[in-house]
Every structure is written in structure tokens, then in C-alpha cells.
From TrEMBL:
Organism from which the protein derives: Herpetosiphon geysericola
Cellular compartments annotated: Cell membrane; Membrane
SUPFAM superfamilies: ABC transporter involved in vitamin B12 uptake, BtuC
Main location: membrane
Topological type in the membrane: Multi-pass membrane protein
Family to which the UniProt record says this protein belongs: Belongs to the ABC-3 integral membrane protein family.
Transmembrane segments: 12-36, 48-72, 92-112, 133-153, 179-206, 218-239, 245-268
Family matches, as InterPro entries: ABC_BtuC-like, ABC_TroCD
Name under which the protein is recorded: ABC transporter
Source species, domain of life: Bacteria
Sorted UniProt keywords: Membrane, Transmembrane, Transmembrane helix, Transport
GO BP terms in the entry: response to zinc ion; transmembrane transport
GO cellular component: ATP-binding cassette (ABC) transporter complex
Amino acid sequence: MNQLLEPLSFSFFRYGILAAVLIGSLCGLLGVYIVLRGMSYIGHGLSHAIFGGAVVSFVLAWNFYLGAGLWGFAAAVLINQTARRTKINADAAIGIVTTASFAIGVALISRYRNFTRSFDAALFGNILGVTNSDLWAIGGVCIMVGLVVFFSYKQLLFMTFNNDVAHVYGVRTNWLDTLFSLMLAATLIVSMKILGVTLIAAALVIPPITARLLTDSFHRMLGISTVIGGLTGCVGMYLSYFFDLASGATIVLTQTGCFMVALGIAALRKQLRSRMIHTHV
């Protein structure tokens, strides 16, 4: 017990574990909609686009959250509108917009070499460098996403499984898509300092896929995915502390371990069901 309490004596670990639990839960919740809508690639792509916005905000001496937020939201809306209004598929639109944005960031870094090291955290995460302002930003995004999901639960559910039918039945799909883009961009921005560009997509995809293996119920999937995200954030932080590993990578590996366990449980269930069917026959 003392070993578990020991890391909490350090303020950087307290801040880090709180951020990890909040970010893990947030990504787990929002990731359900992303996975079920077949948008798994957008988390990876949009995080690269926001990296470009972060570099631009640094060059222009803007606030990180303001600059990256505006850039990320614009990129998400541009992807959405390009896929809707042209013959270009969503995955192609994601590839074009996000790689161009990431290239802008890389070009600026090569031009202004004096701050290259400042973006190591953006690429790979620096959860132990979390500040009070970061926690406030993470908490604000968690509240915003939670309120939207609570008050627009049915509309989001309808739009997730059949966007065209939802529009016919009066759901304001265009407005909801824009709102979802805003939530996704905000989530990725506050997650960037914690997990880094390279690992955000995994945190958005692994918990909901794991939950999908464990249940066929949508609302249970939301709950399980959120819990898995928060729990693996906490466990991953402790593992990274005791084994001296990178925090973001350890959290993602912990989530991968949960996925493997869920995969085994799903396979076992399938085998038991097939045996029961053969027994009754």
C-alpha cells in the first residue's frame, strides 16, 4: 500500500495521473462515436493537423490552446465539408488536409530551428510536465463533451448509425457534425501534451474497440470504454513510474493489454456458445 501512495507525494505525479485519468476517460467516451462511425483514421490524421497549428501558434506567439484550437477546428470542418460536397472520399480528404498541415509544421520547424526541442512533447507527449492551466483546459473539455453527449444522446446515437435517415427525421446533422468536429478537435488539443501526436489515435480507438468486444449494447459500450480509458490511464502512470518508462507509451501498451484480454474473452464466449448450440442440436 505504501508503494502505491509513494508516487502521490510528488506534485508532478499527482498532476500527471489526474490528467491521464481525465484524458483516458475523455478519449474512451468520444472514441465510441469515432469507431462506430468508421472514423478511426481521423484521430490519427487530425492530431497531425493540430501539430501544424501548434507550430504556427508558437511562431506567431499565440496562446497554444487558441492557435491549435482554431487550426484543429478549421481542419476538422474542412475535412467534413470536402467529403460532403465533393467526390473525394473521407479518408482521402483526411489524408490531404492533415498531411498538408503537418508539412507546414515541419517546414516551420526547419526554418526556425531554435525551438525544435520544444516540440518533442507535442510529438511524443510529456505528461509529467502538466501544469495547472493544462488541468483546467482538460477539465473544461471533459465537461463540454460530457454535457453534449448527455443532452444530445439520442441525436448522436441516430446520426452515428444512420446519418441519412437521421437527417430525414429532422435531426440537424450538419450542426451536429460541426459540433462533433469541435469536440474532437478540443479533445485532441488537450491530449497532445499528454500523449503526443503519435499516440493520440491509439487512445481514441483501443478502449472503444475493447468495449465492443465485451458488449453489444451502445450505452454499455460508452460506459465500459470510458472506464477502460480512465483505468488504463491510472495503471499506465503507475507502471511508467515504477519501471521508468515513457508515460504515454505505457498507457497505450496498458490499453493494448486490455484489448488482448477482451479478445480472449470474446473468443472464449464464441467457443462456449458454439458448444451449447451443438449440445442442444
